[in-house]
């Protein structure tokens, strides 16, 4: 039986797992095919690559924190969980902003989005993008609910 203090916030872990899985399955589908997060990292400029990876890094960190918390006491674990979630969300927001400001360069060209980047990106969302967004919502629900 687990220690009383070693409870895992199941909703948060489930949400962050969905973010990681969503990054690994196809996020976008266009005329040139489907692209998961790692394929998107291979295209675009350095800033786009970095912020695309932040989606994955935030998800992995969010998954690791609750399990590390079971092994050792982590001060401010709740704050670290919030930071991991925010890193993941900010990663996607910045990628969209960079793509919008570059008027179709890098990431947008990689997925065939064209000049109306923001509307094109939302039209091209595939299973992975929806898993990431659902994962964020579930993780937020896990953070705000108490047992």
Care to describe what's here?
With 147 residues, the protein is mostly helical. Helix content is 69%, strand content 4%. Strands 1-2 form a two-stranded antiparallel sheet. Helix 1 (10-24) packs antiparallel against helix 7. The protein is elongated. Residues 1-6 have low confidence and may be disordered.
Question: In short, what is this structure?
Answer:
The chain is mainly α and 147 residues long. 69% of the residues lie in helices and 4% in strands.
Q: Runs with pLDDT <50, length 5+?
A: 1-6
* Strand residue percentage: under 5%
CA gyration radius, whole angstroms:
17 Å
The number of helices is 7
Q: Give the averaged pLDDT, no decimals.
A: 79
Order of helices and strands: HEEHHHHHH
Tell me the structural class.
Answer: mainly alpha
Distance between the termini: 18 Å
Sheet with most strands? 2 strands, antiparallel
Number of strands: 2
Instruction: Please estimate the helix content.
Output: 55-70%
Q: Identify the strand order in the major beta sheet.
A: 1-2
Helix and strand arrangement:
Layout: H1 10-24, E1 28-30, E2 33-35, H2 37-41, H3 46-71, H4 77-101, H5 107-111, H6 117-124, H7 127-144
Antiparallel strand pairs: 1-2
What features would you highlight for this structure?
2 strands, 69% helix, mainly alpha, elongated, 147 residues
